[in-house]
Amino acid sequence: MDKVKVIYTVGYGHSGSSLINAILGGANDSIAVSELIKLGHRIRKLGNSKILSNRGKCQGCRENIYNCKLWSQVLKEVPKDNIYFQNENFLDNLKISLNILFGFPKINFNNLDDTKLYNSIIKNSNKIYDKNINTVVDSSKDPRRLKYLQKNPNIDLYVIYLTRDLRGVSNSMEKRGKNFGRTYIIWHIWNILSYITYKKHNKNKKIMISYDKFTQNPDKYLKRIKDKFNIDLNMEDYLDNANKQEIHYIGGNSMQKKDITEIKYDQSWKKRMPKWKQFILNMICYIPNKIWVYNKKL
Ligand SMILES: [Zn+2]
């Protein structure tokens, strides 16, 4: 059996994965599904209920996932037990984080085969789209999920590790009511887990991208992804292609339905934050930003 090709984005939330997900989904041989990790949670939590909150809907067509023309077909083919479920149990999550950091405790990563799910997404998208799709773009972002995928020999896995200026991320999180201290700590833990998982990946199949650098020169980075990951992305019309794409996303926010008119370097945090706060932030974010975001290697 042929391996199934997956492009997986790992990194902290609010780091620009929606934009990159949308652009790559516009490639002639790819389908973007956004945060596929949320599918398992959704079907277990909602069962077959026809009355769903917004969160239970396909974020593209806004239909219940059991009525959406893509996901209804996928869910008919793939048994529930074959769909990864992010456990919300604190101890289980701690275990896998420790396993990524230190290699113990031992975890059986082979107890789940996602190949069926990815293959079904490709097969059913080819019925909907007028393209020749052979790649799923999954921007689930979770490093623990990435670890599972790396252990699966039937997945041809490409990884994008995405980082973004901690000041921009905090600003974005603050707008959603999350305080800075919390963001600061979790951002570090998440990036350490992401980096270790990313580091162990085959060097020919991975790219680390700083979103802040990406937005200043998107063509350069998209070309790099296109060449290294061997995808059929049209460099002249990538925004148009992303916008005209019919989408069926799992997870992500409804903003993703809006058209992308331009890609711009976002420093809105500077306008929003009082000067004294910027001063403190500039100091405590200097080193982490230098390592993860403004690193010369990126
Ligand atoms: Zn849909």
UniProtKB/TrEMBL annotation:
Name this protein carries in UniProt: Sulfotransferase
Organism: Candidatus Vampirococcus lugosii
Taxonomic path: Bacteria, Candidatus Absconditibacteriota, Vampirococcus
